[in-house]
Write a structure and sequence with these properties.
There is one protein chain. By secondary structure, the chain is of the alpha+beta class. The protein has eight helices and eight strands; from the N terminus they run H-H-H-H-H-H-E-E-H-E-E-E-E-E-H-E. A hairpin with a 2-residue loop joins strand 5 and strand 6. Helix 1 packs across helix 2 and helix 3 crosses helix 5. The longest helix has 19 residues.
Amino acid sequence: MARKSSTVSLERDNASHKRDSQADPFKEAFGSRLRETLERLGLPDSYFAKLARIPTSTFSRYKAGQAIPKADDIFPLSDVLGVAPRWLMFGDTGTSSSVADVRDAEWVSIPRYRLMNLTDTGKGDPIETVPYRKDWLNRRLGTSSGLWITELPSDYDALGLEEGDAIICADIDAAGPAEKWICIFRGTAGPFVARYSNRGVAGELDSPDAIFVTAADLQGGDVFAIARVRARMLAKL
């Protein structure tokens, strides 16, 4: 009796995956650690792919053990999963890492400002200062200076951000925002978050109806760039 085509196809896919895994055990080991972490966290793959800004097709290849992330993906991915990048890549549980032991770490104080006080000319007085590990900021953001905290003025679905999320921001200099930056802008109706894009073209993770701010909008005088959004804190203010 002939077997169903779906059964044959599944067996072919399994055999192909087995050959790929045997050909590159490093990729399969990475995929295994990623699958283990995702199962423990219990949230959809798409949630983490969106937070890490990794296309879902690429994320699926990582999970299947068919590809290894480059530096541009491994650090955002490890951050959103809450695991060390060295462990995710190599399974290394040792202490050799770019992040120092908490007892030896340097700390910086980041000021927090009220969203309602932000304008294109200033931020008002800080409400408080929040201590942050200097090595964490340098590793994730490339800097530990010129940063401050406020709350997100509106949802931003492309990154899974919600109104009220605590965010780490940086001032925008006189040259203005750069292409693809996520920024806080102030318009006639108040502050809002949007991507800056002169081309007005949606990115791979943006929804088709995503809102953009362009140079023409800023030159019109009704919209002002307030700050660049650099990172989300794991809490609401």
